[in-house]
Amino acid sequence: MNDATPTDTQSSGAPSRASGSSFYTAMRILPRAQREAMFEIYSFCRLVDDVADSTAPHAERSLGIAEWRSRIEALYAGRPAPELRALAQAVRDFSLRKEDFLAVIDGMAMDAAEDIRAPDWATLDLYCDRVASAVGRLSVLVFGMGEQDGVALAHHLGRALQLTNILRDVDEDAEIGRLYLPQEELRKAGIVSIDPKAVLTSAALGQVCGAVAARALSHFQEADAIMARNPRRTVKAPRIMEEVYRVMLQGMMARGCGCPGSQCSTQSSDVSRGPHYRRGPRRPCSGGEAGAVAGRSRRRA
After folding, report:
1. What global pTM score does this model have?
2. Are 99 and 72 in contact (CB under 8 A)?
3. Alpha-carbon torsion 259, 260, 266, 267, what sign?
4. Which of 83, 157, 187, 196 is most buried, judged by most C-beta within 10 A?
5. Dmax over Cα atoms in the chain, in whole Å?
């Protein structure tokens, strides 16, 4: 089992886990203290994501996720594991909230417990909030945004990035038995099966993906409005992430969104994989990546 024990989460390892991703590019522009804090958040997301995405039985993955919950509880009780001392420093420096770290873990737990297949919109929105927007809520504290607009940006940009990740990785997710497309949209398109590979062969797949893309675009528009009224210095990093993902989404929409990854995704943009905030991240993993911006791996931005 890949239990992703955080033996290498010290600050020296955190940047290396983010290197090569769109997240890394966006975070490099930040002042050192903010940059290092974001790398620690990203590293946390990637490591927990590795547990959720391992090939171990679901029960073992769930145990691994529970261990991470205990590590975060210990960190906030003033007993961080040696490997998490750099993350603990970021928590102190930027007043990062425990509930947001636990929300990320709860999101990863959804993947660890079972292979998600055609969730309803409410469940999918909860998943996006946990794996992407929660990371965003951590990230906006590092960026120095005000409470109200920071939370709003994390909400909208996290969901926009995560839904884009889902569209990008629909074929890759199908290969491992997952399908994040919402059941309501499948039914509207007349798709009865929730078997991931069967759904990908449906002629109505484009209609489903188009509905998801439209919702993502709506969240992008809300995020744009929030960033437009905030000081440029506080939204510079999330703006970069937003631009990368919007281009990717628009490219998929231009191609109809109904084709599997190799035809429909923008491989050249190498949008993070986490996190992602999946396997690259699929979660934007950061609101920061997604969240960061607001990642998960597949989902990782």
Report:
1. 0.84
2. no
3. negative
4. 157
5. 55
Residue with tokens 């062969």: 201
Q: What is the tens place of the pLDDT at every residue in 29-78?
A: 899 999 999 999 999 999 999 999 999 999 999 999 999 999 999 999 99
The Cα 111–Cα 126 span in angstroms is 12
Any idea of the CA torsion for 278, 282, 286, 289, to the nearest 10 degrees?
Answer: 100
End-to-end CA distance of the chain: 24
- Name which of 293, 299, 276 is nearest 43 in CA terms: 276
pLDDT tens figures, 155-208: 999 999 999 999 999 999 999 999 999 999 999 999 999 999 999 999 999 999
HSE-CB for 165 with a 13 A CA cutoff: 41
Q: E-strand spans in the chain? A: 282-283, 299-300
Q: How many helices (H) and strands (E) does the chain have?
A: 15, 2
